[in-house]
Structures
1.
Amino acid sequence: MDRRPAVSGFFYPSSKKELEELLSTIDREVGEPDSCDNPIGVVVPHAGLIYSGITAMHSFKALRRSPARKFVIIGPNHNSYPRIAAAYSGGSWLTPLGSAKIDSALSDRISELSEKIVIDPTPHSVEHSVEVQIPFLQYIYGENFEFSPIILGDQTKETALEIAHALNGLGDEVAFVSTSDLTHYESHESARRKDHDLVAVIESLDVPELYRILGDRRISSCGYGAIAIMMEIVRLRGGSLKLLDYRTSGETSGDFSSVVGYASLVACPQS
C-alpha cells in the first residue's frame, strides 16, 4: 500500500519542479559540511523546508559519505496517540519527487528485534516528522535507497534505550536518521541558550543527562526520544556526535520573539 503525502504543499512544495529548485538552492547554500567517513547516521530537524531546510541539508550531505542505501528514520508522533512505537512495512511513500520504497524486510526485522515496536501504518498517515526527510533522500539518491520509518508515541528513556539496543543489532549496512526540532516558541536568545546546552549533552552521549536537562530546563524538544536512540547507538559503537549546523526559525522569518531551534549533527564511527 502506498502512503500519500500528508504535508506536501505545506512543509514543502507540492510541485516537483518547485521542490527540486528549492532543494537545489539549499544544496548550493550549504556547500560541503565538515563530516566524517562512514557516518553511523545523522540528527535532523523536520520543520518546513524554508525554515529548517538548510540545517537538514547539512546532515544529508554528510550522510552521503556512508555507503549505506538502507535507512531507518526515527521521529516523534506529534499526535501522541497511539502511545506506541510504530514501524511501517510494505509499499512505498509518495512525494512530488516520486516513489520511495519501504524496506519491508528491514521493518519486519526491527519489529522482531524490539519488543517496543509494532508494525502499524495508521499513526504514520498524518505524521510529518519522517515524511519531510524523504525528499532530501530522493534528491540525493534518486530511487537508489530504501527505508524503514519508525515514529514514537512513547519517548520515555526506557523505551528509547530498548529500541537503541535493538537497532544496534542491524549492523553497518543500515544508517540512521533521527529527527527532532529543539526549543519551541521562545525568544531567539532563550532558544539559543537552551539549545546550546542541549547540544552539548547530545554530544556527550549521556542519555540520562539528556532526560534530566530536558526536565530541569523545560526544553521543549519534540523528538527527544529519537535523539536518545541515536545517542545510545553511537555510544554502543564507541563513536561520537558532532554538531554541523544550528539556527532558529527567526533567522528566516525575521521574528525573533518566538522561534523554533534546529540542529543537524553527524554520528561518526570510532576513530
Note: The longest strand covers residues 259-268.
2.
Amino acid sequence: MDRFVLLDLDGVHPLMDKYNIGAITELNEKTVTDPQDQKVLRAMGRRKSRRHTRIVCFSAHFGSELMWAFYAAKHTGICLVFDTDHEFFRRAKPVVYCHSPTDLGHFALEPGEDDELAFCKSLPWQFQEEWRLVFQGDEPKKMPFPKEKLTAVILGYRFLEQHRNDLQDVLMKANYRVDIWRVDRLPNTYDLGLMKVEEIGTHIASAPMT
C-alpha cells in the first residue's frame, strides 16, 4: 500500500488539481493537454503496465559461476541452450547496465513500445551479460518456445546423478533432440568448461560450446 500511495500515485494529485479533475479515471491525454503533463501521465501508465508484463531472461554465456550459483540451485541445476535463429528470439534485446535508471532518459514512451526500463539493471549485475524478451499482458502463462531450437542441456557440476534418468526420460518422451553436457572446472583454474555426456535423439542443430 505504501508503494502504491508514494510511487504509483506520484504526480496524480497535482494533475487532478491543475485540470480540475474529480476522479483518477478521468486522467487521460484528452483531459491532460500540456505535453509535459502528458509525459507524466504516460510514466504513470507505464508503472501500471509493469504489473502485467512478463520477462524471459537469457545469458550470452554458460560459464558464469555466479549465474550457476544464483539461478541453478548452487550448481545442482541445469542450463538450457537455444539456437536463437528463430522468429521467437528476434525481439530479444541486451540489458543495459548503468548507475541509475535515469541514465537512459526513457521516461515518455509511446503506446505499444517496450518499456526500456525492462532492459535496465544496475552495474553490479553486468557479469550476467543478459538478454531479455518482454511480453505485454498476462497471457499466455507459458512461453511457446520453439521446440526444435533447444539444442543442448548443460548439467551443473553438482547435478545429482540420480536425477539424470528423470531428465533423460522427460527429453525423450517429448522428442527433444539435444546434446547433454556437464560443466566441470578446468584444471588449476576457477574457469568452467564442458564435458559431453550423451546425445538425445537425432540432431537438428548444434550450438557452439567453448
Note: The CA atoms of residues 157 and 183 lie 5 Å apart.
